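hiii, so i know i said id send this last week but things got crazy w the move. better late than never?? heres the sequnce for the chain we talked about at the cafe, plus the structure i predicted for it. fair warning i was half asleep when i ran it
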Amino acid sequence: MFQSSSRIAACLLLVAATRAVSAQESPQRAFDHHVHVLSPRLIADWKSLGMAFSRPDDSYTEPVGIMSQAEIDGACLISMAHLYATEDFRAICPTQDLERRLVSAENDFVAVSVARSPGKLVGYYSVNLLRDYAFDELKRCRANPNLTGLKLHLPACGLELENQEHLKRLTEVLSWAEQERAPVLLHLTAGEDVDLERALWFWQSVIEPHPRLEIQLAHLGSVGGFNGSSESILVGYQLRALANPAFRQMSIYFDLSGAIIVDNPEIPATSDERCRRLSELMLRIGVDHFLFASDYPVFSIAETRASLVDRLALPPDDLRTLFATRARCVMAETERD
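okay and structure toks below
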């Protein structure tokens, strides 16, 4: 899995001489592992709180439009139901009963969207795992054949890993997901607050005890852009995998949504130096642990693909591997249909 320094150096030197190949070949279609779909109700509620949307509403509500894009042949549709269980939405959900019903309705909207394109879409439900009803909603969604995975957004839900009660609940949810064979899409942090020591603790204490868990870290484990936290998370994974061969065999993926920022008012642009460092770590860890993901409609699928091709220092064979890689759950769901 891990490549030698000489191999990586040779790969990086090869890129400049072979970059034109990607432009000459026909585009390789990929599976987008991070696409959001929102119900009309959630869009209206979010707008009422002052949220500005950069695309027409049907870009968020209609997966048919997503599937019409030439760059992909399928996508993971990710629920945003957990938003109803955040403090920002308290004006929308003054009671927990209403909150719970809106969370369920939003997850059901994702399920219906998946059902409209069988064999092409994989559904992820979402919940605030700190809520009393969390496990009831997890079990309800798990029983729906159009909902496969669980999306956990720790910062949005107010979960703090330093809080022992919060950590206990996260452990319970991950144990449930492992037992149920439910893949987890995890948003770990909202900034640059993870150093290498913290990253090693996360891998060894939070993830490693669940050897059968399939987990995908959104945005390389951070908020977007290849920042200090995401680098610590990748280096920590590499070190832990070197120390424990069993950990190396776990189904752990890093999605590249928002990894390379070109023009965003909230996240600094990703420099060439940071792109080279990301490429180096991808080659060391193994490109097949990284997933094509766009975070559409936040980012364009086509522009995300172009950024990965143009900015990553990956040889053509490794680029092909990147775009061909499917998470274990995606292969199971698409092959079943």
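btw Confidence is low (pLDDT under 50) at residues 12-24. thought thatd interest u
miss u guys!!
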